[in-house]
Design goal:
about 35% helix; single chain; alpha+beta; Alpha-Beta Plaits; 4 helices; globular
Length: about 90
């Protein structure tokens, strides 16, 4: 399953991006990290693309204290959508 995540933060995109990069090793446990992309919309909005996601592992990772701290620190909220190739 592929996911697009529309995210918002109360900190800044730069703060979110820093934490996003630092947590790439654990994220690799639930998706193809080589294809993962994060893009800035503006200073408080961003989009993430995740490919070949194992949803049960993703939920497990998102429920860890480390992720909870990052989410709280940056005031992150998001919406997740599934997508697939048109071709």
């Amino acid at each position: 399953m592929n996911l697009v995540i529309k995210g918002k933060c109360t900190s800044s995109y730069d703060a979110v991006y820093k934490d996003f990069i630092e947590l790439s090793e654990t994220r690799a446990q639930c998706c193809d990290e080589s294809k993962t992309t994060i893009s800035k919309i503006d200073n408080n909005n961003f989009v993430v693309l995740l490919f070949d996601v194992d949803m049960s592992k993703l939920k497990e990772i998102l429920s860890t204290p480390e992720r909870a701290e990052v989410i709280k620190k940056n005031g992150i909220s998001n919406e997740m959508f599934q997508f697939s190739s048109l071709g």
